[in-house]
Amino acid sequence: MSLQMVSALSNSSLLQPGFSLLNFDGHIFFFGQKGWPKRSCPTGVFLLDIKQNELKMKPAFFSKDSCYLPPLRYPALCTLRSNTKSDEYQYIIHGGKTPNNDLSGKIYFMSLVSKNSKKMMVRCIEKDLDGDVPEARYGHTINVVHSRGKSMSVIFGGRSYTPLTQRTTEKWNSVVDCLPSVFLVDFEFGCCTSYTLPELQDGLSFHVSIARDDTIYILGGHSLQNNTRCPNLYKLKVDLPLGSPAVTCTMLPGGISVSSAIVTQTGDTEFVLVGGYHSDNQKRLVCNTIVLEDSKIEIVERVSPEWTPDIKHCRIWFGCDMGKGSVLLGIPGANKQLISDAYYFYILRCKEAEEDKEEELTTQTCSQTSSEDPGDSTPFEDSEEFWFGAEANSFDVDENDTYNEDDEDDESETGYWITCSASCNIDINSWVPFYSTELNKPAMILCSSGAGHWVHAQCMDLSETMLLRLSEANVKYFCNKHVDLNKGLQTPQKVVHLKKQPMKPLRKKKSMKLATSTKKSFLRRLFE
């Protein structure tokens, strides 16, 4: 195992615990940035480029038929193939936190549609579900199992907010473990079924799950209710006959007490377990090899890399599987006496040097990693899973075009979330796009009354056709409050003034006769 440091150029503040990595044919995409997307990359998805130990991020694009995808932290991800031997696959994304700390319960499918070196384009489709739909959550896992020629997804674990009926003022935004139910999701028919198994008594989050054929192994995890990391090892077996599916659970010996660990696949049946935490105040620096053969699992300790002093003494660490036996690890930059919100990153190669040369470094396996939320636990519970992975824009990206956060405006100073009128109903915590032209901010229009002020188009009950017409035409707009004071909405047309023709000068004879006649009239009145 070898460890190599990489430098994040100009945008390391976007890379923080909770974001994800998506790997399509060796192209790694970053998803789940810090905060809402901004102008430089309105989709919030970036292509990750690692060259000469430098990490660069280039804006990526969504196809025109893609749905809106908010930046989600701590989601559950896995790959889905049409069959076990297919080379084509897509990612399933479920749950996670939005930048407003709202939890998502939606499921998205993401696939690669264009590999153009100038513009990498992906497609994102939202999937509707029916039945026992799992509640919104984060810190959980999702896997795909194959049985009798059929496939289904399995969702387990995670955390969610306390139900509204149980909240108190002191613990309004507190989180709890989700019930230890197992959800089977059939994407072909869009239905979900939940199963309650007696072997699963406590809720778990930030655990490790590895799927192989019709079996899922669940290792470790953290229970908020008991504040423990029990060395549990569960074996879930899913049978998919023509009738109703059957789910069984077996508790196996030989588990490990760990949370927030990362798993990378190094062989057909071999995986490596890296990172995580033993307890609230102890990182886990030991690595393990996991072997799955003949419906059995074997976990043995292996030689760990030579961790740097910065990694050994840092308070938190986090990372993600990059595929082919490689892991991306991050530590806070404060350990190097720099700004506290910056992070430093390392690539851990778990394969031997000879094997590593035969395969591309930046390729991801379909195994599921786990993560921990720093905002809802102790300072050490910060390890989050990375996965890498946005709408077509009018600009192309060249090799030197990277995202620079310094070019952005401070979104907190903009007026998108103002109360524009007495009837304004735009709330940053609940707003969703209303017009097709909106992405992550509400459409606004300038009222020309007085010095002018901005209002939300949705609050003014403007149709999308009228909004586009007002934005393109040379007209003044007045909001609902000032429209009665300004009846003339159209900019007055420019008045063309007619040129006055100069009067023609009188002829000399006529002017002399007029002067003589005037003089005689004056003298007659004078002597009378």
UniProtKB/TrEMBL annotation:
Q: List the biased-composition ranges (Polar residues).
A: 362-372
Where along this sequence does the record place binding of Zn(2+)? 420, 424, 447, 453, 456, 459, 479, 482
What would you give as a GO molecular function for this chain, any one? sequence-specific DNA binding
Q: Which GO terms describe its biological process?
A: chromatin organization; V(D)J recombination
Where does the Recombination activating protein 2 PHD domain lie? 415-492
Family, per the entry?
Belongs to the RAG2 family.
Official protein name in the record? V(D)J recombination-activating protein 2
